[in-house]
Amino acid sequence: MIPNSFDYASPTSISEAIALLQKHGDEAKILSGGHSLLPMMKLRLAEPEMIIDINNIPDLSYIRESDGYLRLGALTREVELEDSELLRSNYPIFADVTKLIADPQVRNCGTIGGNLAHGDAANDHPAVMLAMNAEVVSQGPNGEKVTHITDFFHGFYMTALEEDEILTEIRIPIPPAGTGSAYTKLERKVGDYATAGVAIQLTMDASGTCTYMGIGLTNVGVKPIKVTRAEELLTGTNLSQDLIDQAAQMASEDCSPSADLRGSEEYKRAMVKVLVRRMIKLAMERARAH
Amino acid sequence: MSTKKINISLNGVPHEMEVEPRLLLVHLIREDLNETGTHIGCDTSNCGACTVLLDGRSVKSCTILAVQADGKEISTVEGLAQDGKLHPIQEGFREKHGLQCGFCTPGMMMRIKELLEKNPNPTEEEIRWGISGNLCRCTGYNNIVKATQYAAEKLREAETETVNA
User: Fold this and answer.
1) Which residue of A has its CA nearest to B46?
2) 3-state class of A70 per DSSP?
3) Nearest to A130 by CA among A109, A113, A162, A153
4) What is the pLDDT of residue B95?
5) Which of A27, A121, B39, B89 could bridge across to B151 with cysteines, CB 3.0–4.6 Å?
6) How far is the CA of A257 from the CAs of A122, A261, B86, in angstroms?
């Protein structure tokens, strides 16, 4: 399979890339890791006339903590998230999620910025970012724009990014002590999209009271889902088994999965319920150990 | 639509090429440079038969544009053997019967090359996760795992010998 013809540019600065986006409008697509875009182009589901390859723009790949945020450069590869000592020790949810994204070769290419900018509810980072209360930073002709993750996903392949904007950084507020996080997804085989995926980040204070609860769901709706009702139910409580069960039930009610080869709607709701329960437990264990 | 000039190195040999931006890396390797050891399997970045190393990182060359390889070093199965001597990974596949039909083998070996460079002493589980992006429909993977363990041991021995020399 060969993509339709297109022109190719590989700018070496963000301003150059933005100028190209302004010039070509909706005929242009940004190439980052390329493992969602190129398959779509090979199947001719996407036929952009201009490919803007951002891989040669320096300083877009980093993992660091500064000014109260964990900052991830948009071009940071999945493999770099997987191998990062900082993430391994302080943010175990990244080890959980990266291992479940596609396969090692794809993770050598795929970027966290692309994973979010693609706007696909089947991707794994959106749910993680919803649970972690992230902010998405983009650059456009009018400078920098910061979008809270809850306002970022607009619909099927649609995000808050304008045609002439580039996602440049993901910021996650550094959580206080007593925080734990976890992600899992049910998949039929390596590289499959999730039957259902669940991301949790929670914080417990010294008395065991939950002061923050973030719950994100993968691939059980047209958009990545934040389960606000269950988060509100659990925040301020001591996370009793009964409340966790109720929250898991809410998550299974508040998503909108569609039946496909991975299972019926009913089955996916049941899996959301199970996985929410398990991931809250795991995040609690990690919070206590941290 | 215009073509683009790229400079690449394939198994240490530099090439200057004029390519269409839509040319896939695997087609550049197989059809323009005539190195056909790299296979096209699924053509959808699933099966890993087209795995090559791009600046040392294993990638699926059916889902990379040739223009993205500009300025980079590409390594394929043809570059594994040196001076007429099989690479320990190739030796492992022969000794442990790591292949039957052989279609997945070049991609499998290139993937294992990066795996062992990053992790010289992997557990069985790490090997299985490490090759999870490469499909083999013959062996059931057991002998590929054994071939990898064989190669890992040989490479570690070679490393020790170099250090002691």
Assistant:
1) A191
2) strand
3) A153
4) 98
5) B89
6) 11, 12, 51
- The model's confidence at residue A31, banded by pLDDT at 50, 70 and 90, is very high
Q: What is the mean pLDDT of residues A217-221?
A: 98
Provide mean pLDDT across the span A66-72. 98
Count of Cβ atoms closer than 10 Å to residue A59 Cβ = 10
Please write the tens of the pLDDT for every residue from B26-67: 999 999 999 999 999 999 999 999 999 999 999 999 999 999
Residue spans of beta strands (DSSP E) within chain A: 7-9, 28-31, 50-53, 63-66, 69-73, 135-140, 143-148, 153-155, 158-159, 166-173, 179-186, 196-204, 210-218, 225-226
Distance, in Å, from the CA atom of A249 to the CA atom of A276, rounded to the nearest integer, reads 9
Evaluate whether A168 touches A138 at the Cβ level (below 8 Å). Answer: yes
Query: What share of chain A has pLDDT > 90, as a percent?
Result: 99
Provide the pLDDT for residue B164: 81
Nearest to A34 among B27, B48, B63 (CB): B63
Partners of A173 in the β-ladder: A69
Three-state SS at A211: strand
Q: Indicate the DSSP class of residue B32.
A: I
Compute the C-alpha angle A69/A70/A74, nearest 5°: 115
CA atoms within 13 A on the CB side of B73: 8
Strands A28-31 and A50-53 come out as: parallel
Window 96-155 of B: residues touching A by CB (8 A cutoff) are 111, 114-115, 129-130, 132-134
Tokens of residue A88, six digits: 């391994």
Report the alpha-carbon distance of residue B118 to residue B101 in Å, rounded: 28
Exposed / middle / buried, residue A189 (Cβ in 10 Å: 0-12, 13-18, 19+): exposed
| B66 within 8 A of B23, measured Cβ to Cβ | yes
> What letter does residue A192 receive in the DSSP assignment?
P
Dihedral angle over CA of A270, A275, A281, A287, nearest 10: -150
Place of tokens 């693609």: A118
Kindly determine whether residue A102 and residue B133, on different chains, have CB atoms separated by under 8 Å: yes
B122 to chain A nearest CA, in Å? 15
Q: What is the mean pLDDT of chain B?
A: 97
- pTM for the whole structure: 0.96
Instruction: Reduce the DSSP state of residue B6 to 3 states and report it.
Output: strand
